[in-house]
Amino acid sequence: MPGMSVKPEIELTADGSHTLFVPSLNEHYHSVNGAIQESTHIFINTGLKACSKNEIRIFEVGFGTGLNAFLTILEACKQQISIHYTSVEAYPLDKSVTDKLNYTEGYAGEEKSLFYQLHEAQWDEGIPILPDFHLTKLEADFTQFDFSQLKNIDLIYFDAFAPDKQPGLWTQQIFDNLFKIAAENAILVTYCAKGAVRRMMQQAGFTVERLPGPPGKREMLRATKATSL
Known about the structure:
Layout: E1 9-12, E2 18-22, E3 27-28, H1 35-45, E4 55-61, H2 67-79, E5 82-89, H3 95-98, H4 109-120, E6 126-130, E7 133-139, E8 153-158, H5 172-181, E9 182-190, H6 195-204, E10 207-212, E11 219-224
Parallel strand pairs: 4-5, 4-8, 5-7, 8-9
Antiparallel strand pairs: 1-2, 2-3, 6-7, 9-11, 10-11
Helix pairs in contact: 1-2, 2-4, 5-6
């Protein structure tokens, strides 16, 4: 991605949490209307909490700042559920950037340390962050990703940069592949509500619904893979 060799700029969002800005793309990692609010609304409240299983396999497109993974591990501890979390990221952030992010404010002790453990975990290796939270971070170009290494995914966090910034990450082939690796009753959630994206998900086989978005965004999409007859 052009310009990703340059460190992104840390900015405050409306809820007081940080996001990163990539000048070369004129794009933020999270909503300027509230990074934590956005991730909590889309990926936790609309995604994780909609899963009824006690053991959930999550696949995330875009590890980024680690915010989604951090919120997920905190929620998993609250719900006492087991998570196998796999995330793919082409451009891992440098420690000098992630150490400055303020997502751990208000947390102490073990909860606070979890954020740093997520970032310190080795890439391309499965790591047990907690007994019931297993993390695998894959450093890879998602447009060339080998989907055969995944199966029976219960929840997909689709958190790539916007379609107009990285169109190669929002293609029919990718949504077809995501449908193939999804378990029955799997859920896919994304901040994007574009009609073209919704139609690609439907073409892949998902049932798609528009839901209210987080602050500053009218709608988001949630797709489900119906049980086979």
